[in-house]
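User: Could you go from structure to sequence for me? I need the amino acid at each position, not a summary. Structure tokens:
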């Protein structure tokens, strides 16, 4: 596993630093975080980068989404959930 200092140019590292410093995230950055968290098979609240886990659980909320008669659970920043969901959404419930 590489040293953490070698990942300073990774997008997940840069965004984690912005969150730690309480800087405002852009819409694209929020979309990227929500997409990465929900489309990886390793972690439910973080983004994997070369063996490291960049945890974003402090800014993510849990949602239940009803689509096509089934309920799915997603972790997302509230304002960007619909951006990576496709198709008809019957109901979204924040847990």
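Assistant: Here is the amino acid at each position, in order:
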């Amino acid at each position: 596993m590489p040293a953490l200092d070698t990942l300073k140019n990774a997008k997940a590292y840069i965004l984690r630093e912005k969150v730690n410093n309480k800087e405002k995230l852009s819409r694209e950055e929020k979309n990227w975080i929500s997409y990465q968290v929900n489309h990886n098979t390793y972690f439910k609240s973080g983004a994997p980068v070369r063996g490291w886990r960049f945890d974003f659980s402090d800014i993510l909320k849990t949602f239940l989404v009803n689509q096509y008669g089934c309920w799915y659970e997603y972790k997302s920043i509230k304002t960007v959930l619909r951006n990576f969901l496709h198709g008809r959404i019957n109901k979204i419930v924040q847990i």
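One structural detail worth keeping in mind: Strands lie at 46-49, 52-55, 61-67, 70-76, 91-94.
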